[in-house]
Amino acid sequence: MSPGLVTSAKNMLQNTADDKNNKRKTVNSEKTSSFSDKNKNRSADSKKKYETIIKVKSVIPRRRQDLLKWYGWGYKDSMFVLDENTTSFTGSRYLIGGKNLPYAKQWIKEHFDVDISKPHKVPQIPTTFPKSRLPDNIKQELEKITLLSTDGMDRLIRAHGQTLHDVYHLRENSFPRIPDAVVWPENHEQVEEIVNSASRHHFVIIPFGGGTSVSGSVTCPANEDRPIVVLDTSDMNSILWLDKEQLLARVQAGIVGQDLEREMRARGFTVGHEPDSYEFSTLGGWVATRASGMKKNTYGNIEDLVVQTKVVTPRGVIEKSCRVPRLSCGPEWEHIILGSEGCLGVVTEVTLKIRPLPPVVRYGSLVFPDWDSGFHFEREVARQRLQPSSIRLMDNEQFRFGHALKMEQSWGGVLLDGLKRFYITKIKGFDPLKLCVVTLLMEGSAEQVADSEKKMNAIAAQYGGVPGGAKNGEIGYTLTFVIAYVRDLALECDIVAESFETSVSWERALALCRNTKARVRSECAARRIAHYLISCRLTQTYDAGCCIYFYFGFKTVGFSDPVRVYEEIEEAARDEIIACGGSISHHHGVGKLRKKWYTSTVSEPGRLLLLAAKQALDPDNVFALGNMAFDQYTPDVVKSKL
Amino acid sequence: MSGFVNFTDILKPRNTKFGIVKFMTKKWDPMKTLTLDKYYGPQDLKKVVADSVYIDSFLEAESLRTGVSKEQLKKKVLEYLDEIALDEQTHVMRWMGIVFLKICFMMKIGVFVNEAAVLKLKSTLGKNPVLFLPTHRSYADFCLTTYLCYHYDITLPAVAAGMDFYSMAVVGQSMRETGAFYIRRTLVGSPLYAATLRHYVRTVVAKYGAPVEFFLEGTRSRSNKSLPPKYGMLSMTLVPYFAREVSDVTVVPVNISYDRVMEQTLFAYEHLGVPKPKETTGGLLKSLHRLNDHFGNIYINLGDPISIKEYLDRSADQLVDKSIHSAESLKPLDLQQLTVDQMDKVQDIADYVVTLQQESTVVTITNLLAIVLMQSLIVDEALSLEQVVDKIDWLIDVLRKLGASVFENDLKASVERILVVHKQMVTLDGDKLMLVPALPMVVSPDVQKKMKGHILKAETMVNAIPIIQLQLYVNPVLHYLIPPALIYAVVCSGDTTREQLFASYCKLRKMLRHEFFHLEKTEEMKFTQALQYCMDNNVIRDSIQNPGTLTSGPDRELQLLLRWSVLPALTTLATCVDVMMQCRISDHAQLLKLVQERAESGRCHPYCLSLEAAANCVQGLTLYGALLRHKENEISYEVVPDKIQECHSLITSVLPKINVDFSSSNTVISTNSIKSKL
Ligand SMILES: Cc1cc2nc3c(=O)[nH]c(=O)nc-3n(C[C@H](O)[C@H](O)[C@H](O)COP(=O)(O)OP(=O)(O)OC[C@H]3O[C@@H](n4cnc5c(N)ncnc54)[C@H](O)[C@@H]3O)c2cc1C
């Protein structure tokens, strides 16, 4: 029996009959309810378990393809459009929406030399799909539990994440394997039933949140013989309770970032977790990938925000029995779940910290003559632990890319315009081809923000930086969200582009950036790639290091398998990163793309521990995504290896 | 609890020249049930509830569900709280006390309290919340525990009162100001109200430091015997314990027994299906002159307090253990509610407390006199006062052996006192004790329209009313008599083995579960005890002819008592079975009518005309599986042929063969008295 609660108002003041164990409770006069009534109440109870439940209407519909681009990133109505005369960004969702981008073409020409007059390759919507292999009996069983679809499109768009590899296959409709069905459970109890069914019938479950994974983690495993069912968590998006006193909220794991944040803000609160994908990624996805948000300095990364998770594994539900601020009770199993990449079970509910909305939010920017001075500035801010909510350093290429997306009018405060340009280049003597920009996001009371700004400016001055205005800061952060749309345009222009990131200690960071860029350049040279872009930025700071984010793209004309080429170069870059003391990933996770370095990162005993977790929680490998070292798991192999 | 009990009349010391005023102006610094660093007053409580995380979260969700703005809903919550919340006005308490005492003296009431138990309870106050759970037989119950607390300097209890008082001018407000809080009878269809009430009750228990009093039975029992409990209030009041806002909750079962229940006549009419008039302050005032009469004694008996913690720990099993670490404790404290297992435990406790209330019954002289008179009616033989006193003496002995507490000092004087108290019902005609029939009632078309059941004849009602009233005073004692009575009834139907006896006993008890409240889990023990009692007291004995079987014993007098005590219930049960076997399918109201009609034409014991008794039997038969209950627009029943046949043969075989004429030709019904009444 599910642990439903007796909260039904009906039961409160009326006599109730209870036939549990044939133990009959007493009943009075005519007003009583019969056994069956009570039973009805009970099953209804589990649904009504939280009478404080806030049902959230998601921006994203169940038929994702109605709102989102099936073949790429983001909203259908939002994309870069390039034609003879103009470049523009469609839609009205973003700051640059509907605006002409007069400088873009020039920039593209300079960097990639592509012929933009060529017709764009927008792919045709697929009409044929691999047949669903889900046997009818299982299908019927699952349909009894919850909504199910075997529609080809529904399955195709949930076969992948957002890696270059995924998107390439998607546009070609060339995935070797796509899921056989999609289910949309509404709550924890239904997930339990589905997982139960999977254990009995030996099918595979893929937990699917927003599908924004950039590690291949959510990508449908190619060599799986069992039927594969995608468990789409998007119907599990209620806020179960919200405690304004404790500053906690219990939320179902399928809630999408922007929905969560909108609902919280409407009530005067914020979670403050804003990965650049937060318009589409989900709470459960964040937990499963150990995500990191832009404003982690104020609110923390996902592991700092999560107080408690509830996870359905084939071996049962794993959840701590108390909700406390800290616990000394052996290893923290919450950390087995954080970063489990969908391979151990389904996160169904999460208790999260929330904060009151800050009264003042202010952007800022600082301009530095070069990367090194900007870097040392950031290091100093971190040393003094003065970081505002976000502080990022863009290298010169990125700065110029931002400039390329400058709108026709209305970008009044842009750096290289008018007086400011004059001031920065002539008076301060900054080289436009070397200068770098720090963007700031400050939150707090008016006093705190003013104080923070003053301190930033003072430290910047020590490193030769000058204030660049609030508008530039704001533009920097908005660009963050549209940059993801660039890749679709790029692909249509025969450019492949992708980002990758790492974390590194302060003292190795400068060398790492230099060496990695150099490595990419030499890899390109070796392949005679003339048109490419390699750029980086420093997106997060810690006491003992930072996160570096690289962008790399190149023109593919002449390559038969550009994705393969891209992957080779990224692999080389990663080897370089690791050789320079960087990590396999700061926040994207391992997935399938970075398996190669998993064991050397965690050590052999670490790998064994990972497989032991699998053995303990999912011995039959229901969650067969094969991320990290999980592809080395088969029930027998583990036995002999352990 | 059994044997001799010592009770003290707490009103008597006030019956002096300035007794009332002096006492009601005494210094008021009562003992609290909780020792807290911060005390919450009545207004604080409302604020705590209104500002709680629970209400806030609830409004949030409710606003989404209904589309009504949160502010508007919050306003509604504040209105609800004004409707619900108790208050504390010392001057009102003092005035109410004066009025209460004046009326008591007018009614010549004695309030007898088991003082030792009160003092013992008082000595333990301060540790955790206390719930007073009294039986509910009369509206008078509402004043009694409150006065008792005043008398013993205990904070006046927060008393859950029904909305009928709320709407009474002055009285409603005064009750509120002396600690009453108001609850609606049903929470269905009003989730916001339910949430407000739930949180208010929880907050009062956890933060108010006053005993919390409510009636488990939910309504006044019209039959003067225990009703099955309702679980809503208890579950709300125990949440603070399950959420560990408090370390324990002490539950005090209270039995309030009356020599004369004010509402007795009203109740008797209700049994027959004449709806009760609505209570109004005007009505209350009008009835005041009728209060200048003798109402006898009221006995307030506090049962042994139960520690909820100990009770649950004792019954702790895997389930409970798990439920402590439930998903509920992961919620914010304010949102924590009972799990299904905890709800089961609450129901268990409620059922158990009702049995403790039963065990705390104080058998009054009225009860004893009623039994003797009823028996006298049944054997159609009037008794002299002397004989009556002898019978009562014998009866006291019987009941004490069965575990009852009987409070009597001077038997003869007491009986004479009761004859005054109940002069409307019993009388000495010559030197014989007789029943006074009711005034003939004009069954006008208007009255007919209001009748819930079958349209009874005026002459039926003349004797039915007083006999039902008399039965109301027999009823509180029946829970002692029924187990041996059923055993004897089964043995009377033919020699039987112990196993067969137990099987038939269990079946009958099940069918009568609603008529005679009892716990299923203690039935085997109850049976063993009752059987032992029957053996020890010569009601039954081992058969000599048929070794291994049981047969009737030699004690005719005790046997007679047992036989007739179960007569009305078994007859009603048999009537229900007959009716259903005939019509197969019937809606609820129609079924009760038919049962009444058959009971009238069959000249059954007048208590068989009771709609309540019939409803109880129908529910018993449903529980047994002989009837299927359907609920569409209205409730209806359908017979299960083989099961009902089973019931039929069992009941007819054990039904005591007693034929009595309950009409005016019964020698124990006084015909003279009616004239004097007129
Ligand atoms: C443009 C872009 C920007 C990005 N920016 C950031 C960033 O700033 N910071 C950052 O950390 N990441 C970023 N990412 C990566 C990605 O958004 C995160 O990894 C995110 O947490 C994935 O969430 P999702 O809901 O989309 O999960 P999915 O992609 O659906 O799934 C990711 C993995 O989590 C598993 N999973 C999902 N839900 C559950 C669940 N309920 N229970 C168990 N397992 C589950 C899946 O099986 C899969 O293995 C970005 C990606 C893109 C494309």
Draw up the topology in text:
The complex is a heterodimer of chains A (about 650) and B (about 675).
Chain A: H1 9-13, H2 35-47, E1 80-82, E2 87-89, H3 104-112, H4 136-145, E3 147-149, H5 152-156, H6 164-172, E4 181-184, H7 188-201, E5 204-208, E6 228-232, E7 239-243, E8 248-252, H8 257-266, E9 269-270, H9 283-289, H10 296-299, H11 302-305, E10 306-313, E11 316-318, H12 334-337, E12 346-353, E13 355-356, E14 360-368, H13 371-383, E15 390-394, H14 396-404, H15 418-427, E16 436-444, H16 446-462, E17 466-467, H17 470-492, E18 495-505, H18 506-526, E19 532-542, E20 545-555, H19 562-579, H20 598-602, H21 604-617, H22 635-641
Parallel strand pairs in A: 4-6, 5-6
Antiparallel strand pairs in A: 1-2, 3-4, 7-8, 8-12, 9-13, 10-11, 10-12, 14-16, 14-17, 15-16, 15-19, 18-20, 19-20
Helix pairs in contact in A: 4-7, 13-16, 18-19
Chain B: E1 3-4, E2 8-9, H1 19-24, H2 42-50, H3 53-66, H4 70-84, H5 90-107, E3 110-113, H6 115-124, E4 130-134, H7 141-151, E5 158-162, H8 163-166, H9 171-177, E6 180-183, H10 191-207, E7 212-213, H11 232-242, E8 250-258, H12 264-272, H13 281-286, E9 297-302, E10 306-307, H14 308-314, H15 318-324, H16 340-359, E11 362-363, H17 365-378, E12 383-384, H18 385-401, E13 405-406, H19 411-421, E14 426-429, E15 432-435, H20 445-450, H21 458-492, H22 498-511, H23 523-536, E16 540-542, E17 550-552, H24 556-565, H25 567-583, E18 585-587, H26 588-601, H27 611-624, E19 627-631, E20 635-639, H28 641-654, H29 672-677
Parallel strand pairs in B: 1-13, 3-9, 4-7, 4-8, 5-6, 5-7, 11-13
Antiparallel strand pairs in B: 2-3, 8-9, 8-10, 12-15, 14-15, 16-17, 18-20, 19-20
Helix pairs in contact in B: 2-10, 3-4, 3-10, 4-10, 10-11, 11-16, 12-21, 17-18, 17-21, 21-22, 21-23, 21-24, 25-26, 25-27, 25-28
Bound molecules: flavin-adenine dinucleotide.
Flavin-adenine dinucleotide (FAD) binds next to β5, α9 and β12 of chain A.
GO molecular function, one term (chain B): glycerol-3-phosphate O-acyltransferase activity
Family (chain B): Belongs to the GPAT/DAPAT family.
Membrane topology (chain B): Peripheral membrane protein
